[in-house]
Amino acid sequence: MLGWEIDRDAMTAPAVARNRDAILDVLRRVLPARGVVLEIASGSGEHAIHVAAALPDLTWLPSDPEPQARRSVAAHTRRAGLTNILPPLALDVREEAWPVGRVEAVVCINMIHIAPWSATEGLLASAGRTLTEGGILFLYGPFREGGRHSADSNVAFDASLRARDPAWGVRDREAVTAEAARHGLIAVERVTMPANNLSLIFRSAAS
Q: Does 141 score more than 70 pLDDT?
């Protein structure tokens, strides 16, 4: 029965298999050696499993506003048998009070373009309050730069997002960086990733 429940609840996102190793390469380099990493919008939980397995000295704290996603994270965690992944939190980034104390890093993969701009504002504001001094914020996904998309495929993807919801869409890197700076998050690195994506790394200046 337990195995059936795990199989039923554990979701699979095909994109994870394509990008998880490239993302892990960056996270292995920029995350602290130890501490708590809060993942925003964990989705299926597959990134949490992949990174937590590779970096066992970190404690991974998944979160997602959707109950189905949290069940999937828990199912993947049980299947993997990992002890450095905490139970997933119910967290909406637009809520001012996050149900978590200070953390050493915040990771957000493929969220801000599939959400209204208010979600980006909430993410950056609360990350600024939640990160310890020198803590890391990691963002991954497609971005426009200088008002332009990096590839025709991103143009089409952006159009499809806006057709689903006019409040969604690929964000301007410069706008995200400026909003982050308002909350004490300083851009320290931009990493070109496969499939026309970027990793953006910010460091908290808050004490």
A: yes
Which pLDDT band holds residue 206 (cuts at 50, 70, 90)? low
pTM over 0.85: yes
**For residues 109 and 140, is the Cβ–Cβ distance under 8 A?**
yes
- Cβ count within 10 A of residue 20: 19
- Report which secondary-structure segment, H or E, holds 76: helix 67-80
Range(s) of the domain holding residue 51? 2-204
Query: Which stretch of DSSP H or E encloses residue 37?
Result: strand 35-40
- Please give the C-alpha separations between residue 197 and each of 109, 113, 143, 190, in angstroms, as whole numbers: 11, 12, 7, 11
Tell me how many domains the chain contains.
Answer: 1
CATH of the domain at 161: 3.40.50.150
Per-residue pLDDT, 5: 40
DSSP string, 180-207: HHHTTEEEEEEEEEGGGEEEEEEEE---
Maximum CA extent, the chain: 53
The C-alpha atoms of residue 84 and residue 39 are separated, in whole angstroms, by 13
